[in-house]
Amino acid sequence: MTDNMKNAQVEKDNQKNMGFTLIEVLISFSIFLVICSLIPQFMKLISHEPKLLHHMEVSLFFQQLASDVDRAATVFVVNNTLYLNQANNEQVTYSMFQQRIRRQVNNKGQEIVLQNVSEVTFLKWKNGIDVIVKDLYQQTHERRLSHVLPLEAMHDG
């Protein structure tokens, strides 16, 4: 009798392990559909992120450039390179290097201040500079930065 009970128990275990129930399949399929529905949203987020980061990078570039222009004693442009002579005898330059705008102090170092740039133009005018940046995303960013002269320079002229 014990052999019959063992055989019956083995037969019940085999029936339990024969496959998935309909509820298990439906739950698995619904989880799969939820995951599949989220994939396009993640792809959209990933594809827009570089443009968002570039916009923030351009904003930061113009802020730093405006700060350097404010601190400059003299400002001039030669061969589309911006030269900012500081009061402490340092010369800060901004120029195009490959697809980047770089900042150098006394022609040393190489601080990349903006990436993915196809063209940059520095135009000097009486009280400042105009900066036109064309990026690799076919967008143009323009900014007019005023250079405030120190009071000593205004009285000398």
Unreliable stretches, pLDDT < 50, 5 or more residues?
151-157
- N to C succession of SSEs: HHEEEEEEEEH
SS-based class:
alpha+beta
Count of helical regions? 3
Mean pLDDT: 81
Largest pleated sheet: 5 strands, antiparallel
In total, how many domains does the architecture comprise? 1
Calculate the terminal CA-CA distance, rounded to whole Å.
119 Å
Number of strand elements: 8
- Order of neighbouring strands in the sheet with most strands: 1-2-3-4-5
Shape type:
rod-shaped
- Give the helix proportion (percent range): 40-55%
Instruction: Specify Rg, calculated over alpha carbons.
Output: 33 Å
The portion of residues forming beta strands comes to 35-45%
Describe the structure.
The protein has helices spanning 2-16, 22-71, 151-156; strands at residues 72-78, 81-86, 91-97, 100-105, 108-114, 117-125, 128-135, 140-146. With 157 residues, it is α+β, with helices and mostly antiparallel strands. The protein has one domain. The strands form 2 sheets. Strands 1-2-3-4-5 form a 5-stranded antiparallel beta sheet, with helices on one face. A 3-stranded antiparallel beta sheet has the order 6-7-8, with helices on one face. Strand 4 (100-105) and strand 5 (108-114) form a beta hairpin. Residues 151-157 have low confidence and may be disordered.
